[in-house]
Write a structure and sequence with these properties.
The protein has 16 helices and eight strands. By secondary structure, the chain is mainly alpha-helical. Strands 1-3-2 form a three-stranded antiparallel β-sheet. Helix 1 runs antiparallel to helix 2, helix 8 crosses helix 9 and helix 10 runs antiparallel to helix 11. The longest helix has 146 residues.
Length: 534
Amino acid sequence: MFNSLSFLLGSVSTGGAIGIAVGIVAALVVGVAVGYVIFRFGARKKLGSIKDECARLLDSARSNADTYLKEARLEIKEEQHKMRSDLDKESRERRAELQRSENRLSQREDQLSSRELLLDKKSASLDDRKKALEGKEQEVAHLQEELSHAHEKMLEQLEKVAQLTQEEAKARLMEQLLDEVRKDAGEKAREIEQTAKEEAEKKAKNIVGQAVQRCAADHASEISVSTVALPSDEMKGRLIGRVGRNIRSIENSTGVDLIIDDTPDVVTVSAFDPVRREVAKLAIERLVADGRIHPARIEETVEKVRRELDNQMKEAAENAAFDAGVFGLHPEVIKLLGRLKYRTSYGQNVLKHSLEVSYLAGAMASELGADFKICRRAGLLHDIGKAVDHEVEGTHVSIGVEILKRFKESPAVIHAVEAHHNDVEPSTLEAMIVQAADSISGARPGARRESIENYVKRLEKIENVANSFAGVEQSFAIQAGREIRVMVKPEEVDDSATMFMAKEIARKLEAELDYPGQIKVNVIRELRSVEYAK
């Protein structure tokens, strides 16, 4: 086609305008005819391929449809079969359940019928019993009537025999009863009075013992009195001051009694409060060293010494708590614990004693599996009441319990403190351990000031108890009275009897003596055979 156009263009250039027009028309006709032929041929070819593809797809769809139809029919048949089997199974189960229900209903009907029979029998027996009871009631009523008549007759006969009316007999009987009651009441009153006297005597002894312990009369010169050395007797006059103003200022500022007597170069400070006594002692020593003694200087020095002593007591208490491994104490409890540094009990420093009890209680708690922290804490605080027992009414145990309750100590620690002198019965292992540790610390040799006479007498009493048994040759109280060794005569006491003798000696010691801790009883039987070769 492009060749024809190029030809026509060539013709136009050589043959003129008419030739050009004819050539163009002829070329267009030829091109259209050629394009139609080509289009018709391609269309027929595509139509044939499309028909073939459609036929192929139709065949494939028919075959797939047949396959799907067969599979669907099979699935439907399987589902129908499964549904039929499920229906059959469910129907069988329902029939079985219905059968069981029918069986149960029939059993219940049988039971109900048997119960009805039993109820009928019981009702019949109850009717019979009612009739029998009605008959017995009639018999009882008849017997009561007979008894009332017999009682009246007996009273008439008794009145005739005794020649007394019923009222007179009642009056005599009441007099006899009153006499017996008066007699019993008198005996009971005497018994109550005797018991009251015994209890009053025990309580009086307890009160006196507490008063003696708190006042510490046996060691008054060592516990409630301190001495201050002076450089010369001239200093006594300066301490007294003009018309006694200096001594009054010292006593008013410190709360102690200052005793200035004929003892050369010494003044005595007397007070039951150990902290006040220590403040006064230190203040006087500083005033004497300074030489300026007048009321203003006295008040200033006393206040300064008091602050320094408070700091020292607080530091001592904190060191003791740190050494004992006790932490978290209330600041007020720390202050009271520091006051124990200047408190003594039978010559034993109470703060050192408390620290020792804490150590002992902790060691025993570790061995016995008790609470280590509670034992350490209760051991350190068990005598906290002694810090203020000269100022507050009550025993140091009750005072200490109130202090610990006020500052929110744990109930286990409070109970151990309350039970360490058996004010209450110890109910925990920790309380028993603290009680034992307190006894060990107070009763160990050298812990407290005990006169040699009392110490020897205590050992002699232990030995006398052992010597009172037959067959004892010698006895020796050792370890400050915590153990006694009993030597028996081998010809009088055999091996089996030594065991019983040890138990009897221990029982007698428990019944007759008071002692801290426990006493170990060792009964020893030794047989020696001696012969000489000549």
